[in-house]
Amino acid sequence: MAKCMGEATYKSRKRARIVAEEARCIYCSGRSETLEHMPPLSMFRNRARPSHMEYGACKNCNNNTSGADLVAAVVARLNPTSSEDSWQNNELKKLVNALDIDAPGVRDELGEPEKHKTQWLSVAGSKLLRKISVVKADGPLLEAYLTIFGIKMAMALYRELVGIALPLDGAAWCQFQLNGSISQHQLDRLTTDLPGYSTLQQGAVNVGDQFAYRYNTDKRSVIAAVAQFHHGLWYTLLASHDQRIIGLFSKPPISQLSGSTMMRPGELSSRVPVPIRHKPMP
Ligand SMILES: [Zn+2]
Predict the structure, then answer these.
(1) CA 175–ligand 1 middle distance (angstroms)
(2) Which residues have a Cβ under 8 Å from the Cβ of 61 and sit 6 or more positions away?
(3) Cα-to-centroid distance, 63 and ligand 1 (Å)
(4) Confidence band, pLDDT 50/70/90 cuts, at residue 47
(5) How many helices, marked H, and strands, marked E, lie in the chain?
(6) More confident residue, 231 or 127
(7) What is the pLDDT, as a whole number, of residue 15?
(8) Cβ-contact 158, 87 below 8 angstroms
(9) Is residue 80 part of a domain?
(10) Dist. CA 246 → ligand 1 center (Å)
């Protein structure tokens, strides 16, 4: 018991220290008021998230973007090759139910049958074929939430790799890809120029199967990364405060890549979709 209390005190002191030492919210010009985990706890199996990659954020950015965190946690677990009773699918059921509260309307977009393409996969070690459903998640709400998550990740990685929050005259760019839309070949090509590799690790706990990223940075003004979340969600991410580099990713052809968006610090909250609340049942 004493040990537990000691650990709790240590954790809350550590949280308070991180929030106090952050110069400002890592996403906007607001004050650092809350502890932001990026990636969020919901991204990890049983919410068992190694510490590290914890930053200060304002209440507004932290609270307003929780829907985006949840949508990313759901989409990341949508893996057509995991078996029905896998832990990913068991966690999905709970997460999908929470969507109605934190990201209303997204469940409807995911649930539309025409978005699911049926494929047959051979079962390893046998001649059996298994029916799987590949999700084509391209509804406007999903896209908005996944974009917010990607921009958050780009800004968090800038903070992580450069050591300061992305300056207010900087910009972040993201492009997401879902399961079935990216091949190993494409991934290999994307990562050729990104020599660094990292994940979250704490003691023997390694969550590289749930979150990992490859990156490059000058540690001063620019980061580029490819981040993978489980087997369902990939991002190409850029963040910089070098105006020449921002010029490159704010103009075609980069700005016209499908699923890509650029945002400035401070824009996240205004991009959160206005909730579509269903009328309560009479
Ligand atoms: Zn903020």
Answers:
(1) 22
(2) 25, 27, 28, 30, 36, 268, 269
(3) 10
(4) very high
(5) 9, 12
(6) 231
(7) 92
(8) no
(9) no
(10) 21
Triad 253, 264, 168: Cα angle to 5°? 130
H-only helix segments in the chain = 2-21, 59-64, 66-77, 87-102, 106-111, 140-162, 184-191, 243-249, 268-271
Q: Look at residue 208 and tell me whether its pLDDT is greater than 50.
A: yes
User: pLDDT tens digits for 223-274?
Assistant: 999 999 998 899 999 999 999 999 988 888 888 888 889 999 999 989 998 8
Q: How many angstroms separate the alpha carbon of residue 65 from the centre of ligand 1?
A: 10
Q: Is residue 88 part of a domain?
A: no
Distance 25 CA to ligand 1 centre (A): 5
pTM of the model: 0.86
* Dist. CA 35 → ligand 1 center (Å): 11
Dist. CA 32–CA 270, nearest whole Å: 19
| Domain with 184 in it | 14-66+141-270
In a domain, 275, yes or no: no
Residue 204 lies in a domain: yes
| DSSP assignment letter at 30 | S
Ion ligand 1: protein residues whose beta carbon lies under 5 Å: 25, 27-28, 30, 58, 61
Ligand 1 center to 93 CA (angstroms): 31
- Kindly tell me if the per-residue pLDDT of 1 is higher than 50: no
User: How many angstroms separate the alpha carbon of residue 59 from the centre of ligand 1?
Assistant: 7
Please give the distance, rounded to the nearest whole angstrom, from the Cα atom of residue 69 to the centre of ligand 1: 15
